[in-house]
Amino acid sequence: MLDEKIIEEAKQLILQQNKEEAAKLTQKVISEGTDPLELLKEGFIPGINHVGDLFGRGQLFLPELIKAAATMKTVTDIVNEAIADDSEKQQSQTTVLIATVKGDVHDIGKAIVVSLMRANGFVVHDLGRDVETDKIIEEAQNVNADIIGTSALLTTTMPRQKEIEEALKSAGLRDRFKTIVGGAPVTPRWAARIGADAYAEDAQDGVLKVKELLAQS
Ligand code: B1M
Predict the structure, then answer these.
(1) Contacts (Cβ under 8 Å, ≥6 apart) of 125
(2) Quick one: which atom of ligand 1 is closest to the CA of 65?
(3) CATH 1.10.1240.10: does it fit domain 4-85?
(4) Is the dihedral of CA 24, 27, 33, 37 positive or negative?
(5) Does the domain spanning 89-216 belong to CATH 1.10.10.60?
(6) Which atom of ligand 1 lies at the shortest distance from residue 104's CA?
(7) Per-chain mean pLDDT for the chain
(8) What's the half-sphere exposure (Cβ side, CA atoms, 13 Å) at 120?
(9) Span from the CA of 153 to the centroid of ligand 1 (angstroms)
(10) 65: CA distance to ligand 1 center in Å?
(11) Which of 1, 3, 15, 160 could serve as 101's disulfide partner, Cβ 3.0–4.6 Å?
């Protein structure tokens, strides 16, 4: 369990866009043997969400949002590396293809999802961000994926997740892959509406949903 003071410090460091101190705090927590995912979940993620709220209300501007995002990226890179080091790397036969949809460059959350899935032994092909629907489907076939996972952070890019479902159907490939959708504005209702196989709230839930989908098939 993390100390309340550390959690608060993590939130503040994101708000202050203090990359160096945020990196130091993350290293310290890892070296003390505390779960770094808890630091992300309880401290840094609420911090960046608060930044997003301030930005949305016009109380903080794009340069600050970019600096806060860079701070967030630094700490998630450190955590992702720690998760990878920690894993026993027992590779399963499950292949997941992941991408942030076209028009969307948000990839901090997706990177956490990718790391945790890899740490759980899944083979993950990460196509990056701003990826065209056709490319996602083509690559899913090339790598013989079992699951296609997509992330969307903008209400304007969520429809791309629907486009993927429709493109899979028209290519006669809908039964070939299971699909998981995630991202801050995405909801279980949206997932059901577009016909995705699962919705994942966060990285841990993403791993759980992959396991559930595999158990069903
Ligand atoms: Co932008 N942005 N942003 N942004 N940004 C949001 C999303 C916004 C809500 C902020 C706000 O206004 N309140 C808003 C969207 C509003 C809307 O859609 N209605 C917004 C906007 C408007 C924009 C721009 C348009 C701003 C501009 O240019 N004027 C622009 C768009 C660029 C584009 O994509 N075309 C933009 C740009 C950026 C930055 C580049 C500066 C930066 C992104 C940097 C990067 O990712 N490399 C950025 C950031 C950092 C944010 C906020 C503040 C934080 C996002 C984040 O990293 N969260 C965000 C506010 C918010 O989301 N509340 C905001 C932390 C991360 C760990 O969480 O990504 O949600 P998240 O991932 C979670 C879960 O969602 C889930 O697990 C993750 C781990 O727990 N998950 C999955 C995600 N994908 C999953 C996939 C899965 C499973 C789970 O399976 C496949």
Answers:
(1) 95, 96, 97, 98, 139, 143, 145
(2) 41
(3) yes
(4) positive
(5) no
(6) 34
(7) 95
(8) 20
(9) 5
(10) 10
(11) 160
Q: Quick one: tokens of 60?
A: 């903080």
Q: What's the pLDDT score for residue 189?
A: 98
**Which amino acid, one-letter code, is at 134?**
D
Give the closest residue (by CA) to ligand 1 atom 42.
69
Residue spans of the domains in the chain: they are 4-85, 89-216
* 197 DSSP assignment: S
Query: Has residue 88 got a pLDDT over 60?
Result: no
In this prediction, residue 72 carries a pLDDT of 96
pLDDT score at 91: 66
Higher pLDDT, 84 or 38: 38
CA pair distance 27, 77, nearest whole angstrom: 11
User: How many Å lie between the centroid of ligand 1 and the Cα of residue 204?
Assistant: 18
Identify the band that residue 203 occupies on the pLDDT scale cut at 50, 70 and 90.
Answer: very high
100-126 confidence digits (pLDDT tens): 999 999 999 999 999 999 989 999 999
Distance (Å) from CA 215 to ligand 1 centroid? 31
Q: How far apart are CA 130 and CA 87, in angstroms?
A: 29
Confidence band of 46 (pLDDT split at 50, 70, 90) = very high
Contacts of 136 by beta carbon, 8 Å cutoff, 6+ apart: 97, 99, 101, 127, 148, 150, 164
